[in-house]
Known about the structure:
The chain is α/β, with parallel strands linked by helices. The chain has helices spanning 8-37, 46-71, 123-128; strands spanning 4-6, 72-74, 89-94, 100-106, 117-119, 136-141, 144-154. Helix 1 runs antiparallel to helix 2. It comes from Seohaeicola nanhaiensis. This is Transcription elongation factor GreA. Keywords: DNA-binding, Elongation factor, Protein biosynthesis, Transcription, Transcription regulation. Belongs to the GreA/GreB family.
Amino acid sequence: xxxxxxxxxxxxxxxxxxxxxxxxxxxxxxxxxxxxxxxxxxxxxxxxxxxxxxxxxxxxxxxxxxxxxxxxxxxxxxxxxxxxxxxxxxxxxxxxxxxxxxxxxxxxxxxxxxxxxxxxxxxxxxxxxxxxxxxxxxxxxxxxxxxxxxxxxxxx
Length: 156
């Protein structure tokens, strides 16, 4: 399988979530299931069915995180330089609206557009890869064609 690129911060966040699920959430749901069992008839026990459903979700998420972390290739952006690549924090200006935006290009499992973390597989990130400061970039987004100018590239 292919390695999954990830920043050190993204890797640490996923490890932290996995630790929380294994050491806090899993034991809590096991206790909740045991308590619900004590209430008698399981066929009509909503607490039991709810707890089992939550347990299924937690176990699925644990398996997913273990899989992602086993394939993770942690790339430290501080050790990179040059044109835009994975890990770069890029400041762009929209050539139509003069609106400035800053995004860091990260792996898909740590992407969060509200926090300025742009998925490397997104149309904007793919268009930016290999560009340098001052370059103009045309991007076809779900909202239509956009033109950006690269103002600044920072690694680290």
